[in-house]
Amino acid sequence: MSAGPARVLAALRRAGDRPLTGVDLSRAHGVSRTQVWKDVETLRARGYRIEASAGDGYRLLGAPDRLYPDEIEAGLETRWLGRSLHYLDETDSTNRVAAELAREGAPHGAAVIAEGQTAGRGRLGRRFHSPPYENLYVSIVLRPTLSVAQAPAWILASAVGVADAVAAGLGRDDAVEIKWPNDVLIDGLKAAGILMELGAEATQVAWMVLGIGVNLNVDPAGFPEEFRARATSLADRRGERVDRAAFTRALFGHLESVLDSCAKQGFRGIIPRFEARFHMRDRRVSLREVDGAVHEGRVLGIDPDGALLLEVKGTARRFLAGDVTLSGSES
Amino acid sequence: MSAGPARVLAALRRAGDRPLTGVDLSRAHGVSRTQVWKDVETLRARGYRIEASAGDGYRLLGAPDRLYPDEIEAGLETRWLGRSLHYLDETDSTNRVAAELAREGAPHGAAVIAEGQTAGRGRLGRRFHSPPYENLYVSIVLRPTLSVAQAPAWILASAVGVADAVAAGLGRDDAVEIKWPNDVLIDGLKAAGILMELGAEATQVAWMVLGIGVNLNVDPAGFPEEFRARATSLADRRGERVDRAAFTRALFGHLESVLDSCAKQGFRGIIPRFEARFHMRDRRVSLREVDGAVHEGRVLGIDPDGALLLEVKGTARRFLAGDVTLSGSES
What we know:
Two copies of one chain form a homodimer. By secondary structure, chain A is of the alpha+beta class. Chain A has helices at residues 3-15, 22-29, 33-45, 69-73, 94-103, 151-170, 225-228, 234-238, 244-265, 271-277, and strands spanning 49-53, 57-62, 85-91, 111-117, 136-142, 176-179, 183-186, 189-201, 204-214, 284-288, 294-302, 308-312, 315-319, 323-326. In chain A, helix 1 crosses helix 3, helix 2 (22-29) packs across helix 3 (33-45) and helix 6 packs across helix 10. The longest helix of chain A has 22 residues, at 244-265. The A-B interface holds A 93, 95-96, 99-100, 103, 121-125, 145-152, 155-156, 181-182, 194-204, 206, 290-291, 305-307, 320-322 and B 93, 95-96, 99-100, 103, 121-125, 145-152, 155-156, 181-182, 194-204, 206, 290-291, 305-307, 320-322.
């Protein structure tokens, strides 16, 4: 948002219930009362409800349900994550935008948020259902000191951060689990997914982009047929709408914390947190590898590289990637 | 190139020294003689030297020194690499363009070639010196069946392909070596470099872009001060200019071959070829890790994941990434 309306908004927020006159605002910011009036109109056009009474002045009654940087920055407690925010009403893909910013030198933690995506993609090229103004679609630029071979562990670590944020938003910690490698489920239904892009100079990561989609307020009844039985949203499981800006701040906080740990100790230090969210240990699953080969086995756990360990026909085997389903289940 | 000029060009190429009349050409393609004349003018504007004599007709005397798709496709023997070609006179970065094409679904082997790059980058963010019309800047879209952790081996395998193409173009096999992880040297001077970007769905690679820059005809005397003592070009070492289109075809062939092997057998099958080009075994080097830590040691080799093995203070150690210099050298 341009400086004028942003300053007026910040002043109204600080004032809370106390009305601020146009004179107060114009003096505080060294601008004319006409400019203050224009800034208030700009804010109203963006959906801010601002009461104006002739004698009292202006009061902020409500903010729009939009993920404007001003909405997210007010109360954001992270050190680096989301400190540079880019907002788009609609884009083809937040990952594409974030990758361009990364190539141009965007800092560690820069985030791109879009209200809607026209070409959002899920795993294996599946189309990601991205209705506007209901959910969170965010892509985060990271500049970790990392080799490419260590990158998968960072995807898994970020799944822990997303799961923690979803659990906090839901208020039922046990209901939230991670489906290896990167889906977050509530009551067994998919609520969030993570994609990654990276740029490497030789075998070193130069930049990484985490693309995170979380179903917040969307009504699963409107999902396309193929998702309906297997997906959900935070609001649907909680029974009330989610404050999307507050959720975004919480997500940034959880992610910053887990990624800082990962940078310090490597994924090894995250494994207990991952396994606490990973309810698949000892369950029988079938894993389909990228080349189509299918392996049935019992889940033994996750190793320090983030690989899935399965006992297949009495032998422990290690899988770096693949699509896991519970044996006898469609999910 | 649009269909008309491309067809005229192909016909003139096939005819070789034999002149083709405007009537021949207009009949063969079912277009007017005026259209043939326009197509010839288009080709001339692109730098093709076409002789026209009233009685005899048209003859192709020479092609411009440009990496037009038509120039590369004529004689290209690959199955998949370079079969979809995108040509740009100038771009900020061929990797950026290729990554966008990859996201939009470009096929395995699609290639983006630019005559010049305004924002070409080398390792560790160093600016890559990219003078136009002299060298080769190409980015190739790959869609391997691979986990992210296996991606570094593909970068190393592609270095083998680049080194083989450089050696073939030079005609002195022994002079060409790979500096782990991804530089190709002639007589110890840098002639080519490789960057990679990838998109992942969870821990699986969805697409990969290899960005390859090869110094072909550039005069090292014009390099910026900081490169001059350590870089060279194929023409400089060979003493004559390189046919850039022919080099590009050869590069595509060598790369396709080594990447096909990598897809079939993994990097393990490429190690002997990598080690034959890797003249560092038993030499003392210092390796600077991404976090700044420096290790002095003796090179033991490369492992199946593409990691560098060093003997440091009597212990074998494995490094996934880093910047290697010969001990006591600046290179």
